[in-house]
Amino acid sequence: MKILKLFIFILLISKNFYALSIGANEQQATLECEGTADKKTLINAWYINEPYQYLIATSNGHTTVSGMDIELINAIAAKIGINIEYNQDSWYQDQLDIQSGNADMTAGVTYTTERSNYAYFSKPYRLEELSLFIIEPLAKKLNF
User: Fold this and answer.
1) What is this structure's pTM?
2) Where would I find the beta strands (DSSP E) of 34-79?
3) What is the pLDDT of residues 9-24, one digit of tens each?
4) Could you tell me if 86 and 46 are in contact, meaning their C-beta atoms sit under 8 angstroms apart?
5) From CA 67, how far away is CA 46, in angstroms rounded?
6) Locate the Solute-binding protein family 3/N-terminal domain: which residues (predicted)?
């Protein structure tokens, strides 16, 4: 029983230290992104990439953006009390908008050293693996 109590005590202490370290990281991120801290609406550049970001028809005949990334963005925005304006563009334009500051955020972008020169990245919120499937007779004609 003493071992169990000791284990719970250590677990609680380490949880508190972990929470403190998270708070410090959040404070640093806030300081680094001061330019957007006062904004009530952030511009999200997005490109069609199903099932993460895509258009759906609404009951009144209009379209709206939806998808797993969009739902995550909307949930976070609601939690922190900001609005999101969605601007659809191509993948290429999406990157230019982030780089130039014409957009505040985008989703589903893989970290590269080059991109880190002009954008901040969150911790990964999904993991993907890209694979190529080829019909067997065609595979023999390829050199890889």
Assistant:
1) 0.65
2) 41-46, 54-57, 63-66
3) 343 343 333 333 344 4
4) yes
5) 11
6) 50-131
